[in-house]
Amino acid sequence: MKSSIYGIEEAQELFIPRSSCILTSDFQEFLDTYGDHPVLYIHETPSLTDIQRLHRIAPVFTTNHRGLYVKSTGEESAYLAALATAYRSGVANITVTVPPRDQSIEVIPDKEGYDTEVDPSDKSYTFIKFYISLYNKFLLDYPGERTPFIERCAEPISFANDSVRVVNFSFFYESLFLKKGTFSEILKPYLAKRKSRMAINAQRFDEDEDDYDPDELTAYVEDTPAYKDMHRQYKFYPRLNKDGEPICYMFQQEKGGHIQVGDFFMTPLLHIYSDDDEANKRVLKINRRYYKTPLYIEVASRTLLKKSTIEEKLICLEAVNFTNGEEKHWTKIREYMSRNFITCAEITTYGNQQTDGASRREDNMFFAFSNGIFYIIDGIPRFEPVNELGVVTHNNRNYYLPAFSAIYAGTGRQSDKYELMSQYVRFPK
After folding, report:
1. Burial code of 234-273, b = ≥16 C-beta within 10 A, e = fewer?
2. Residue-wise pLDDT tens digits, 319-337
3. Domain range summary for the chain, segments of one domain joined by +
């Protein structure tokens, strides 16, 4: 039997509004209850996809405490880990019941001062309180470093409803043997991570975007070598729309998970190299989250120096915002792009070109038109047209002829800047 959740379809059929669905890791309990009440059998550690299906079955779940424990090594039982994952995924209304036989005997003095045993009854706990109680018992006698386990508890606490967290705040930090201020500091990054997750879900534009779980690395990153390498080296990857186009940045956070940065994604195209700082430029393609049509921009290289300098350019564009972006994020983006530009030299004077000073060797000469270059090799004349970016290669060097570049197509800038040059065309025979 593979790791999964069993009985989903049957539970959906049996579920009655305003009732609950039973969860269990005991296969015999599942068989005994199956058909009479909505019940789900959770075997080992189900996938996140299986766990997310719980949302569609019932708003409230109940389980007994059997199978929920922390081992002496600090490892969680498979059932506890599965319910903790469900809780972090938004399945928050889980009640854990402890029957009388598994409770400690409660003793109180009677009116005459004699001790009297109290008959116990079933006790119910919210999942988050039961979870923290388990770690309270574990940490009580644990001789090692407690920090990893306290951080493990901080994450599901951050996913609790705000009112639940406020009401139980003292219970949480006292159970973990912490002071209020210390616990608040530990909890801060996890609350920020949860806020990021909520913001991403709230920012879903329309049906054109898939659901995103910022805690999980999406499958296409692992399956795409370029994205996998991007994430490994620069700690971000592109969020894609349903057309497979990158539309914004997902940055890895220190405490795990990812935060969405910006509503655009830049693809580095050209580095137009020049010793003159004014003529040293970069050409970028910008995909926008809320618009289908990409933008192409040409900026001085020094514009990419800092977040503040690039934002001076972005503010002039439509629907391009560096939301949630910090200097450290822009530094990583710039670092990635710096290694992925095509370096070229811009042809500013058309006609005969000599790439090696005064040399008259035919293989060092070519004639530049606005739509390509003409040259002779081994006595044979050839014409090499520019590619869609307006780049052509000769003798392993790249040259930029911008008049026919797609970068300026349909923008109105082509006629302003290259009207005369664009007439200097060679037509094929």
Report:
1. bbbbbbbbeeebbbbbbbbeeeebbbbbbbbbbbbbbbbb
2. 899 999 999 999 999 999 9
3. 4-202, 219-342, 347-423
